């Protein structure tokens, strides 16, 4: 079919708007009469505000108000229902709730002025006296005090299987490792920002940086005791998020507070430094004890994680579930404990838990493969699992073997000499390493609405987000494909609480969830159109059955005889000049319960390590992905490339450095907090292996937002071992660790 849109490499439908600046991000909604807020951040990590003197700030001409815990109106934080849709168990941080300081850089005041510069200047004049209390931000020192949370945010560790201790003790090969992953902070291009627009009748329109407008709406309604109908949240474009926008951040609360109190519109945008004042990927230490037979066949896996959280919320993520998904082994014991520190609560970051857990698991397995003298790919084939052993369910589909095969072939893996330090080029040691990974392919409940107007133009909508991943584009493709319309006749709307409900855009579930809803809504329009087409005078489809027609090129035609056709516009004429409107709520099919849906990846990496300097260059990455049906090979490839680049950052660069004397992350800007730049990125190739899956959702697509990152860092670290013979077990692998 020449009009097929699904599976076609399609440029972003919002690409032009983005490169011309037409696309507006939260802070760019410069409504008339706007005022500006600037946040004052706590200088201490724990204690109390003894006094806060705002008089000098208020004396500045143009400063309108300074909001603190002292003048916060009593109705705010009234009903205690202030958890948001991504809150971990515990008691969320409430800005300006009290004088208590719970973490360094906690927002303690908002200065609002007629201009941004005046607000910032005013903020510098706020004088704060603190009573400092002892604090503890030292992860290593508290690891032995780690606790099992009452409730996990993530999947709780599954019960042990078999006899892990005995099997380990009896195993011919044993390996015990400890791997550490640092805290990492979100650094999207767009800083967090909210514009709260004060409407005449006291209602609010809020432009927010968020991965789900419903979450901001619910949060504001609860914090301020408002009806949801009084708050409309809009977020048409998000300049990167990947978890940082799952929870409403404190600038949202502050902007709304100021707007309500001043009865003016208020913009609050965080600075790059303040981006380091909220959630981060938690520092995590993992201990693995793995036993295997002489030939490398696994006999026991014990995987224990110790991860940072705040003192007020129990954040956890799926760090230790991966052995049960990725390796067949009858004796397994998995645990995940938390280390409570005086920091802000950690937050989901691209493949939360997977990035961390698969790193430690895959590096440990590389160590074991060496010990067994088995090639790393061979080792993984030997221990291949046909089911998710945590849930004892078969995979809905799993083409990981094909990932190994195609990835290895493209990379040239068969030419590898397994001996460390065996490949050299001048003073560069060359290393080849590999790892595999998985991520959940979840479908959530979602709603969508399709409106086909008499002129044949289709508008489809759902309150989801596009964090740069391509939601606008793939939803447009799915809708166009279902109704056989050209792409330019389809518009997809998102990011507005007035649209049908959608889950948070995260967890790699948007295509699966919202895409299924879009398809279902368009399928209903299809049925209606077919009936209308049959009513057209002398309709060639009069006696046709619905199953016998197809929708393509703006026409409904018989599959057997394309000349028997009715145009969509002709069919629409039978609708009395009215649009066709269909809204559906879609949810996962019951049959999904019996299966474990996952995406898989195999990644092959080449590094060059300068022997004299210890510098590492990742010269080649090949990732083969099994992600079900690929809706758009172009945006899909971009997703995986982005994951690879971030994986380079995880392996070699990213680290938020905590100064335990100050209780503060010190390298809080992009000068000192390193992320990969163009000079760090070399050859990267993405392969999508064919994978059919009719269980995962009606589209057969699995979602690709997170699978691209999980196996990259371990493949790099394994390649560094192959190059140098040094096994670095603490990320990032900076040059000092290689000298
Ligand atoms: Mo993702 S970390 O669920 O945005």
Automatic annotation (TrEMBL):
<dbReference type="InterPro" id="IPR008274">
    <property type="entry name" value="AldOxase/xan_DH_MoCoBD1"/>
</dbReference>
<dbReference type="InterPro" id="IPR046867">
    <property type="entry name" value="AldOxase/xan_DH_MoCoBD2"/>
</dbReference>
<feature type="domain" description="Aldehyde oxidase/xanthine dehydrogenase a/b hammerhead">
    <location>
        <begin position="20"/>
        <end position="134"/>
    </location>
</feature>
<dbReference type="Pfam" id="PF20256">
    <property type="entry name" value="MoCoBD_2"/>
</dbReference>
<dbReference type="InterPro" id="IPR000674">
    <property type="entry name" value="Ald_Oxase/Xan_DH_a/b"/>
</dbReference>
<dbReference type="InterPro" id="IPR016208">
    <property type="entry name" value="Ald_Oxase/xanthine_DH-like"/>
</dbReference>
<dbReference type="InterPro" id="IPR037165">
    <property type="entry name" value="AldOxase/xan_DH_Mopterin-bd_sf"/>
</dbReference>
<protein>
    <submittedName>
        <fullName>Xanthine dehydrogenase family protein molybdopterin-binding subunit</fullName>
    </submittedName>
</protein>
<dbReference type="InterPro" id="IPR036856">
    <property type="entry name" value="Ald_Oxase/Xan_DH_a/b_sf"/>
</dbReference>
<dbReference type="Pfam" id="PF01315">
    <property type="entry name" value="Ald_Xan_dh_C"/>
</dbReference>
<dbReference type="Pfam" id="PF02738">
    <property type="entry name" value="MoCoBD_1"/>
</dbReference>
């Amino acid at each position: 079919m020449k009009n097929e849109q699904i599976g076609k490499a399609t440029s972003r439908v919002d690409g032009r708007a983005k490169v011309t600046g037409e696309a507006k991000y939260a802070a760019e909604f410069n409504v008339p009469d706007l005022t500006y807020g600037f946040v004052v951040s706590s200088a201490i990590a724990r204690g109390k505000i003894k006094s806060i003197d705002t008089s000098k700030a208020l004396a500045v001409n143009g400063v309108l108000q300074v909001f603190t815990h002292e003048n916060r109106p009593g109705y705010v934080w009234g009903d205690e229902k202030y958890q948001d849709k991504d809150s971990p168990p515990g008691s969320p941080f409430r800005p300006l709730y009290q004088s208590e300081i719970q973490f360094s850089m906690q927002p303690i005041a908002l200065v609002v002025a007629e201009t941004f510069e005046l607000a910032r200047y005013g903020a510098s004049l706020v004088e704060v006296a603190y009573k400092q209390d002892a604090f503890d931000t030292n992860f290593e020192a508290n690891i032995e005090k780690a606790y099992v949370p009452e409730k996990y945010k993530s999947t709780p560790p599954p019960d042990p299987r078999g006899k892990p201790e005995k099997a380990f003790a009896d195993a011919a090969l044993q390996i015990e490792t400890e791997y550490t992953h640092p805290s990492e902070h979100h650094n999207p291009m767009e800083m967090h920002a909210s514009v709260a627009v004060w409407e005449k009748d006291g209602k609010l329109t809020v432009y927010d940086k968020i991965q789900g407008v419903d979450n901001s709406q619910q949060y504001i309604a609860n914090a301020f005791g408002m009806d949801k109908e009084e708050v409309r949240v809009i977020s048409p474009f998000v300049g990167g998020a990947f978890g940082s926008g799952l929870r409403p951040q404190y600038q949202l609360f502050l902007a709304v507070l100021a707007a309500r109190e001043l009865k003016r519109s208020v913009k609050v945008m965080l600075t790059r430094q303040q981006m380091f004042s909220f959630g981060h990927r938690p520092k995590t230490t993992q201990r693995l004890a793995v036993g295997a037979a002489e030939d490398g066949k696994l006999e026991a896996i014990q995987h224990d994680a110790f991860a940072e959280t705040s003192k007020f919320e129990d954040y956890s993520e799926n760090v230790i579930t991966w052995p049960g998904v990725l390796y067949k082994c009858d004796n397994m014991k998995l645990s995940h404990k938390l280390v409570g520190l005086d920091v802000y609560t950690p937050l989901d970051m691209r493949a939360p838990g997977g990035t961390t857990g698969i790193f430690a698991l895959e590096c440990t397995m590389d160590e074991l493969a060496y010990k067994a003298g088995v090639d790393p790919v061979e080792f993984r084939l030997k221990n291949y699992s046909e089911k998710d052993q945590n849930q004892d369910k078969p995979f809905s589909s799993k083409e990981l073997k094909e990932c190994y095969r195609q990835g290895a072939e493209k990379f040239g893996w068969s030419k590898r000499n397994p001996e460390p330090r065996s490949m050299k080029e001048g003073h560069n040691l060359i290393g080849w390493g590999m790892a595999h990974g998985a991520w959940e392919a979840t479908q959530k409940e979602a709603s969508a609405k399709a409106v086909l107007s008499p002129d044949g133009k289709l508008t489809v909508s759902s309150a989801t987000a596009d964090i740069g991943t391509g939601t606008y584009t793939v939803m447009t493709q799915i809708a166009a494909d279902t109704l056989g319309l050209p792409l330019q006749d389809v518009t997809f709307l998102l990011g507005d609480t007035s649209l049908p409900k959608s889950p948070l855009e995260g967890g790699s579930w948007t295509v699966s969830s919202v895409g299924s809803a879009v398809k279902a809504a368009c399928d209903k329009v299809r049925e209606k159109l077919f009936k209308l087409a049959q009513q057209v005078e002398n309709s060639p489809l009069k006696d046709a059955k619905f199953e016998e027609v197809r929708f393509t090129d703006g026409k409904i035609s018989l599959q057997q005889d394309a000349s028997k056709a009715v145009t969509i516009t002709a069919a629409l004429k039978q609708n009395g000049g009215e649009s066709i409107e269909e809204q559906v709520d879609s949810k996962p099919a019951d049959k999904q319960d019996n299966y474990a849906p996952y995406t898989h990846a195999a990644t092959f990496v080449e590094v060059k390590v300068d022997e004299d300097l210890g510098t590492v260059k990742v010269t080649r990455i090949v990732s083969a992905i099994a992600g079900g049906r690929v809706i758009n090979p172009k945006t899909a490839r971009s997703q995986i490339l982005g994951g690879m680049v971030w994986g380079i950052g995880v392996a070699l660069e990213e680290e938020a450095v905590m100064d335990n004397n100050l209780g503060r992350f010190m390298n809080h800007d992009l000068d000192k907090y390193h992320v990969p730049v163009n000079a760090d990125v070399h050859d990267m190739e993405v392969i999508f292996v064919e994978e059919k899956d009719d269980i995962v959702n009606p589209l057969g697509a699995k979602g690709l937002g997170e699978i691209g990152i999980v196996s990259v860092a371990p493949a790099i670290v394994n390649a560094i071992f192959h190059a140098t013979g040094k096994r670095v077990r603490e990320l990032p692998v900076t040059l000092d660790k290689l000298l």
